[in-house]
Amino acid sequence: MSDTATMAGLDPATLADVLRLAGSEGFDRIQDQIRRTGGCSDPIHLQGSTVTRDARSGHVLHSYSTDAEPGGRLRLACGNRRASRCPSCAWTYAGDTYHLIRAGLIGDPAKGTPPTIREHPRVFATLTAPSFGPVHNRPGNRPCACGIHHQEDAAELGTALTPATYDYAGAVLWNNHASDLWRYFTIYLRREIARRAGLTQKAAHEQSRVSFGKVAEYQKRGAVHFHAVIRFDGPDGPDSPPPHWATLDLLTDAIHAAAARVAVDVPPAGDQQARTLLWGTQLDVQPIGAFGNGEDITEQAVASYVAKYATKAAETTGTVDRRIGNKEALALLGVPDHPARLIAACLDLHALYPERKLRDWAHMLGFRGHFSTKSRRYSTTLGALRQVRADYRAAQQRVSLGLPDPADHPETTVRVLAHWTYAGHGNTPGESWLAANIRRDIQHSRETAREELPGQLALEGADA
């Protein structure tokens, strides 16, 4: 437990619950469960039991039941990727994303990519939305169009200079179709590569592959943009070198040409005219250098950047991280004017474009795609990384219980019978306070460990 001075700032209800927990008979086990979840903010509660038997003799090797747990429940981490919902689980998700992106940049045989992948042409591309109207900004050393030199953290940055003329409908429709824009971009990119190589698309596909890993990020104005690692591979993916014609310059030119070709048509509906959605003109493509060679865009920086934004969403613009059913809720939730107008536009447009599910994704300002995606051959998968972590913990559990390791005792077959039921989720006020302190202590320990290991990359231990 933290000291009394730390507890002094608690509200009466939380303080009373902390004292109740501290005096309860199962406090040590509650604390242990919370620590095992990493200080999860919204743990899942389960009730049930498991029995491990020797398949041949039927002898019970181990049994467990939540009947012996405080409250008769077992807590599991929620696994939410959003930092606004659960910082602990989001940190793990960011670590997994970091390793996934990094494996596709420097190579990691354990994650499906050879070290020779560092020699493949690869770039870090940023594709943005077009303008929907002028917004408050910081244009170099000049004042904003409103005449003010805004501070970096000014609340008005990214908001419309003239809300009455800002195209809020266009902004949310663009967000809603952003995944389609990306899909067409990847199609046109392969075509532009073949054209520049002087090959047919079939011949170019037989000689090379294009792999990518990307993440979506919200700008202050509420428009989604994508950051992507795009890499040239040989015909067999990362295990084969790209052909001689697959150069960095060719890839860069093809990206620019492909982005310029993309157009997604939105039909007219109600008072909305037909629209053609395009990528914005601010397309940035930079080569990725090897770590430690002095480049501005390095492998570590790219992997860390992508991992950071994989845990964020529209709440960075001032909106909320859960669904909003009607406009009246905007005032009750205290949503600022600019994101509130974007959400209202989603709710208004839902009846005109019901198939786009704009009401369901109003809190995301219309965006309904995945925040981090990758092509099949870029590197490993998040599922594979989670499985490695689960296998590691299972091996630890076997050792602590004295159970046989199947790899060391192939003649021994065990059978696990389990029965689980959902029993709720979340923490009491006192448990939330305890989880926050445990999460802070774990984070501090990890940061200290990284500082003591020279050269340790950011988030390196996230999946340990």
Automatic annotation (TrEMBL):
Looking up Pfam families in the UniProt record yields: RepSA (PF20199)
Q: Which InterPro entries match?
A: RepSA (IPR046828), RepSA_streptomyces (IPR048241)
Highest taxon of source: Bacteria
Indicate what this protein is called per its UniProt record.
Replication initiation protein
Q: Which organism is it from?
A: Streptomyces dioscori
Q: What does UniProt list as this organism's lineage?
A: Bacteria, Bacillati, Actinomycetota, Actinomycetes, Kitasatosporales
